[in-house]
Amino acid sequence: EYEMYHEMCLKNGWNFNLISVSDGSSSSLKTALINFIYSRCSNDYQILLQYVYLSEEMPSQDMLLQKSHESDIEIKLKIEEDSLELDSNRVELTGDINTLPIRTNEKKHILISGLGILKFQLMKKSDLQGKPTNFYFLEIDDRKTIEILERAVMPSQAASSPIGIILKKLLSDTKTFFLFHIDNDQENEALLN
Q1: Lesser CB count within 10 Å: N end or C end of the chain?
Q2: Backbone phi, then psi, for 67, in 5-degree steps?
Q3: How many whole angstroms separate alpha carbon 51 and alpha carbon 136?
Q4: How far apart are CA 136 and CA 130, in angstroms?
């Protein structure tokens, strides 16, 4: 199902997202997703990648910085008409995931709650000056953020926190696909096909 959704959004130039809701972080799902995007899109699209971890309890982190001492840099997020602009390190996805400087499991502090965002900016190689398609992978793996998501999906509820505002924005202005309770021991690549 996800593969058809992915292809439909790209074909129509819609900004879209995949929201993973589970009881623990899954670096294998991130790896499978990055490999999926690269294998499906690299022939026709230039792929730029950003990866941040946003928290309301601790400083947010740029997960693409190679040196941990650089993680104290404040991440600014700007909400645009139909996208989120992240003031963080951006790398071009040009090959194997192992060449990326991703700190998937290293966090400077143990974050009690927060939101992992992988943002893929896809530019058609035939029109690099055109409007990009933005794809967001949101990783929600703690009870507090799940509760914020529950309030964000209810139209009558106003967002009362920064993460709630981000979730409400993406749910209202982009196409959304959910994956719930992913088994972290399962082979996650099969979920994307």
Answers
A1: N
A2: -105, 130
A3: 10
A4: 19
CA–CA distance, 128 with 132 (Å, rounded to integer)? 8
Q: Helix, strand, or coil here: 143?
A: helix
H-run or E-run covering 11: helix 2-12
d(CA 43, CA 28): 24
- Provide the token pair at 81: 């008409």
Q: What is the mean pLDDT of each run of 10 residues along the chain (193 residues)?
A: 94 95 79 91 96 87 71 75 89 80 53 87 94 95 90 85 92 91 54 52
